Amino acid sequence: MKAESGIVLGIELSSRQGSLALLKDGTLLAEKTWIGENVRHNVLFQTLETLLGGVGVSYSDISLYAVGRGPGSFSGMRMAFAVAQALALPVKTEVRAVSSGAALALAAAREGAEQIIVVGDARRGQVWYGLFNAGRNVCPELDQEWRLVPYKEVAVQEETLVVSSDADRLRDYIPQLTLSLFPLARDVAALALKQTVPEPLEPLYLHPPVFVEPKFS
Amino acid sequence: MILLGIETSCDETAAAVLVDGAVRSNIIYSQIAQHAPYGGVVPEIASRDHVRKLPGIIREAMQGAGSSFEQLDGIAVTYGPGLSSSLLIGYSAARALSQRLGIPLTGVHHHEGHIYSVFLSEKPPVLDGAFPMMVLLVSGGDTKLVYMKAPGCYEIIGQTIDDAAGEALDKGAMLLGLGYPGGPVIQKTAEGGNPRAVRFPRGLDNPGGEWKYTFDRKLCFSFSGLKTALLYHVQHHPESLKDETAKRNLIASYQEAVADALAVRIERALELYDCVSFACAGGVSLNKVLREKLGKLSEKCGVPLKLSSPKLCTDNAAMVAGAAFIRQSLGHPFILPDDVNPNLRLENWDNT
Fold this sequence. Notes:
The complex is a heterodimer.
Chain A lengths: L6 E6 L4 E8 L2 E9 L5 H14 L7 E7 L5 H15 L5 E5 L1 H10 L5 E9 L2 E8 L7 E2 L4 E4 L10 E4 L2 H4 L6 E4 L4 H10 L23
Parallel strand pairs in A: 1-4, 4-5, 6-10, 10-11
Antiparallel strand pairs in A: 1-2, 2-3, 6-7, 7-8, 7-9
Chain B lengths: L1 E6 L4 E8 L2 E9 L1 H4 L7 H23 L8 E7 L3 H18 L3 E5 H7 L16 E6 L4 E6 L6 E5 L5 H11 L6 H9 L33 H13 L7 H29 L4 E5 L6 H14 L3 E3 L10 H12 L23
Parallel strand pairs in B: 1-4, 4-5, 6-9, 9-10
Antiparallel strand pairs in B: 1-2, 2-3, 6-7, 7-8
């Protein structure tokens, strides 16, 4: 079955709001979200069961798994990939990775914005951000690469909407941050269906894994 | 019963399939090359690599066993102790797969996996006549003596008060500029050396000082003094690193001290406790000098020794599925953990 005409399970765990959604033929069938300051395993796995059971969908009905690849919480992103790829194993179901930032930009575009900055707290005094252009009926596109900069170096033009799932932490540093949203699994799933160029099947890490010099190099 | 095992507690990504406790496939992807430049495991590198590699490793284990996912009766996964971010990958994948297939998932203590690995092979495990058993658990992260009256009945009677044996080998190798991991490289460079050339301490040799632990001091380990003694030796005898023979002798003596410290404690334990067998498990149990010493001890005291086959000594998933199979076959139900536990304690089966 082609993914576009079947059931898609979207998995989005890159922010402190977890989100799972089912799309059938591109239309939202069901969605569940929950807030967890830390990764909450039981909630994710129980929600997965109730989401599917609630609309009478079984795993074998799913033709595509769509995963939000961040940027965002490392643990959340990794869990999302581990879960999606494991669910996909038995019958080699297709898995597509989607930028969670693009999903957030898509949600912001519904508010009418065309120029959108998606920003997140990268900790260690830094933020990551990406500028998206959202035309009508088009998926938001990342204008340039994601950037990792100190808090005070985020430059925002007047007509640009700034959106973040870390708004509570970043408002003090970025006064233009007006929209607080979390990426949704429905948008991750929708973007996966419209994807023309595949994204790598791994989390989008903006920090290198280590900050110390190798000992034997 | 067909079980899939999954292990990601540290820097090995592993999956295995066991049929009625017999190992049918045992796939291990070691990340050593990625961590070697840092002289130890970097947790963030480990968890990134687990995400990348685990799906392919599971697929390979299934193909290697000639099993289909629909044939699985259960999944066993390590849920602690270990690196939290690494444990999370295996746990998430295992739980998702168990839900996808509608089969039970059980959590396994990493050390239980090592312990029961001594019973595993291509044939179903036989535990008859092995208990009470004394186990020397030696790895990069832990060194302890566990007395087992029966399967699933654990009494920790001694442990290291500072570094683990594997850590002592890693740190010694680092100090001598040999690379990482320390165990294999020390064993290789010590070959042909005189193990009695330099006298290193065996730890806790002197009875003086305050003893704040509840364990019998004679059954505990300490490797920090050994490491310091090596440092002082190198500082006072810099020529020992320049001459190849002297260097080989130094490394052989250091390895001898680690192996001897371990062998002496298990010999004491066998004198104090009634055992019909003893075992050594964990990554350091691969060490040839240690294996020889334990073999001689077995001959000397007439107590049979159980060692894992080399592929089951380092972290692997066959031991995880094996421990789950043995537990279940002895009438103890699977346990579904809610979460990973990096500090998981070894609990008796009757308490879980």
